[in-house]
Amino acid sequence: MANDDNNNHDGPAVSDEEWARFMEQARTGAGEAPQEPSARARMVTARLRAESAEPAGWRTGPAWQEMQGRGRRKRRLKAAAAVVFIAALALIAVRPELVIDRVTGKAAREEKAREPLPAETARPSAPPSAVDPDRPTLTEPFKGSPALQWADGAAGIELPQAQAVGGMSQEQVADALEKAKQFLVSANLDPATLRGERPAAALELLDPKLKDELDRLEGTLTAPTKENDPLHLFTRVKPAELKPAGDVVKVRGRMWVEPGKEAGQVSVLADYTFVYPFVKAKPGADEVARSIVRREVTFSTADPRKWQATAGKLWLERYNVNLANSACDVYDGYLHPTFADDARTGPAPSGTPVDPYDRSKGIDSGEPEGCGTLSRT
Fold first, then answer.
1. In degrees rounded to 5, what are phi and psi of residue 252?
2. 71 plus 190 within the same structural domain
3. pTM as predicted
4. Is residue 346 part of a domain?
5. What are the pLDDT digits (tens) for 15-63?
6. Which domain holds residue 84?
């Protein structure tokens, strides 16, 4: 060790008394260290203390006094660096994921996964890329989901530029687009609708001349069945069973316009996916489960001067829905997502796993019937 000291030209950064006091603090844990670190922190701290124990011959060497003056600044810098290094190791002991994420590249991927996507203007050619399969939490309910990059709520329902189509003026088309958005917001994002209340704002947008259709929709809300389920158009849960995990619903999709079946008619087509994070409505519940609802809805409107239609109202031409992570055999008009601690009931999911975030094909294109299997939520 004497030869090592001569080669390195190192000496003590401080006096013998200060060094001894520093080592005693490291050995006993005195100072500003937390009084009750985690078990992992205690193990790493113990190892650091053992490694910092003064080795034999640490201060031996014939030129120790001579080198003290010229090496003082250098030794002080080294001592400061050592303190920073020990502090960094202590932080790693408490939060090792900070280093692990950097080493594995996960931190960079998570940062990229949070970058908002541009608006969807055409059907994508492929499903979203895989992301780190992290479990959602109450503070990060979309963690581990492609929806992390999607827009929040109504901001995700962006309207195309209105143009005159099918004998309808630009103003009439713009009004139809705005009314279609209002319907989707009321049916899928309105807190009152989500907690099971009557979606009054959405129903008010439909043409009262379609009395039979309106009566049928009202019936689905009061007496739902498998064939007449309000979930076909409206997203609802039971407040006694579930509550939202946060106040954000993620939305991704597009809306476009086509000429109607006859002159003086225009069709507004909407294809949107809504991602809902839920937690059980019981004290202490912290597990988050996501349900993914994709809707394809075709609205139409007509010029009241040519057709028996009410100005500013919508007709429902067609609608399809895909419900991901909801009980397969329950038709009470509410979503029932599955949580990890739920007992298995009903039919077991089967078939090739389906990605509920895949918007590259329509709902009718190979979607499973019955109780399918999901590749992720």
1. -145, 135
2. no
3. 0.72
4. no
5. 566 555 555 554 554 444 433 333 323 333 333 333 433 333 332 233 3
6. 2-95
